[in-house]
Design goal:
six-stranded mixed sheet, 35% helix, flat, isomerase, DNA topoisomerase, DNA-binding, Topo_IA_2, Topo_IA_cen_sub1
Amino acid sequence: MRTVLMVAEKPSLAQSIAKILSKGSCTSRKGLNGACSVHEYSGSFQGQTVRFKMTSVCGHVMSLDFTGKYNNWDKVDPAELFSKAPTEKKEANPKLNMVKFLQVEARGSDYVVLWLDCDKEGENICFEVLDAIHPVMNKGSVRDQSVFRAKFSSITDTDIWNAMNRLGEPNRNEALSVDARQELDLRIGCAFTRFQTKYFQGKYGNLDSSLISFGPCQTPTLGFCVERHDKIQSFKPETYWVLQAKVFKGKDTPLTLDWNRVRVFDREVGQMFVNLAKTSKEAQ
């Protein structure tokens, strides 16, 4: 019987998908890393009866970092981090032994179905998983497709079954765009963090200058906060007028209405609406 390995992004997601696809008949066990469980059951795939193994990762399998000597702040000019410094992929969380765990579970598998999150980060993790398991999977015919990608937007029975019945392929270009973003974040973030930390050390007594981090994501967010703060500080109140109306019907409690326009800053315009309201005898 052939084996299909299925990989989700989080343990809880793997459990939910396995429960739906197995209709609650799967058996579960802990993986060797203790963090990820493996859910197993039999079913149909590509017109044949197979054994399914559903498991997960815990986010990114790999992370990007500089090679050893470039992590020494005192011996490396921050400017070198922009171009000269080589990078390498390392396990994102070595304590999880995620690569070894995936290889143990993938050994002897014939197919893999990737249930990673449906965004660019998820596509990137797809290829991190494939890099880890490809060497230990069974080698099928050149014409046989062995890698499949599930696309889903919610964890409902209907959506999961639709994804399983409409499997596609992972998108390498989207994965590569994440690789590029990771390298930019690493080079820019490390170079500027090291530069400004060294630059500000000892210059201001009340500044905790042990580490002054910089990141392409942090900087625009900080800009939004500063811009909003400046607007609040420079705010000048203006007088405005609001139309307040009540509708009466017999002896019923009057109904207070909200004005769709909310407010006006011109009193004459407000008075015009008041006059219009006063001349109305009915409201719908």
